[in-house]
What does this fold into?
Amino acid sequence: MTVRVGLIVNPIAGMGGKVGLKGTDGEATLDKARALGAEPLANTRAEAALAAASWQRGTLELLTFAGDMGETTATKAGLEPTVIGNSRAGASDAGDTAAAARAMLERDVGLILFAGGDGTARDIFQVIGQEVPVLGIPTGVKMHSAVFATGPASAGRLAAEYLRGGTAGIGLADAEIMDIDEEEQRRNRLSAKLFGYARVPFERRALQYAKAASHVSGQAKLDALGRDTAAGMEQDVLYIIGPGSTTQRLLQHLGLEGSLLGVDVVLNGKAVVRDASEADLLQALDGHEARIISGVIGGQGFLFGRGNQQISAGVIRRVGVDNLMVVAAVEKLIALPTNRLLVDTGDSDLDADLSGFMRVHTGPGETMMLAVAAA
It folds into this structure.
């Protein structure tokens, strides 16, 4: 039996991450990302997903759009896609994503596998609703939605398992489609909106969960932890402070204004870079011993690879995996659906090095040991 699968790649998704733009919505932002040296990564991650899928030859008809919207990726993965459309002007946009989703809906595909972020998920959902199951290959910067696999390989394996079917096959579940206003995010204001619920193949450990807000309880401990950490910062050591309200407490105790949704760099009690890009971090690291202080994304458990792509594999390797400090509220850790932290740096060797168990600081003198796994 032949199954039809749709593949949609948003080739610009995630380009704003490493250069600190927190997304690539809008032509002006995309132009700025390119000017800052951003490179496409969606097709590479989509290819990794297809490679992990282990499609049974002769059982799959892959439908996609021409060029970088899917054809290129599928061909590199050794598949022979059926091209059903083309982007209107070479460089695809939200309208092309919607057109591809509509064409796949009309051709009765069994699943739409897409590479992108929350904006791509929203554009597809507005066309198909719950009529076709979807599964996201995480490629964007934000990815607050629950329609994404934890990583490219997980997406490929889950898609193949679902499409194989059978009595013990993967079922479907409702998953939130969320998106945030990027312009508000760039002003350090988080404005999230629920657009609806898509149908996704469900396997608990293969899917990421929707981002969850922090709880109020335990905030006094985090405040004290921020104070103690600030007091214990070493002279002439560079500190890379990841995004989030937990890490911002540290900056507040230093009397510094941080970028809530960006990455800041501190040296000898002073902010030397605010809202840094990957390039900024690599430049700042020259000649300095360094530490990285990172929070955890609530509800998902991501440590690296979601919302903090500026702290790239290259940056982490320069700092050293032994020089990481993770901070989070106990309540946030207990609420994690899979009881583990996840890493998706884009470097499988580094993800393996980070895997195992990691000590998470939850208050002054208090820690929890959590498993860390590659997404």
